[in-house]
Amino acid sequence: MKIKMSYTDLNSASNSTFFKECEFEFDLMHQLTMAHNYSNIIWEGGVRKADNFIAAHSLILDFDGTWPLEAAKAEFQSVANACLVTSKSHQSEFKIDEFGQPGKAIVPRDYFHVIVGLPEPITSLDSFKTVMANLIAKYGSDPSCKDGARMYYGCPKQQFWYS
Question: Are 97 and 11 contacting, i.e. CB atoms less than 8 angstroms apart?
Fold first, then answer.
């Protein structure tokens, strides 16, 4: 399955406003998420802004220590085109900030993203928000995942898993 994603360099959020669009095979997702900040959303002109939403070619859920990684793998095992990638604070004793520096002390837990490739893109921001709100409610992930301008930080030291 080919998928489109948006990506930028490994920058702070304030410096990750213009994203390039790329298309690649879904089973290479971990290479993108390891080397770049990324988004499942394609924006008009590549400018990260909800008003510029064109399409989402995948769905991404963000879990910050609220669900065990092994339970997520079991849940998504039978879902076609699912990829789990750990994020910067995964099993860390500190919350890792956008610059990769240790912040406040935390209990080491599983921090990860679940990425599910879609057979057809969602081309309506309202539809995207509805689908994401339902998934967030079902799985208890970060509610900001339904934002039409959402981006995720790449993680060079990530672990990854595919269904």
Answer: no
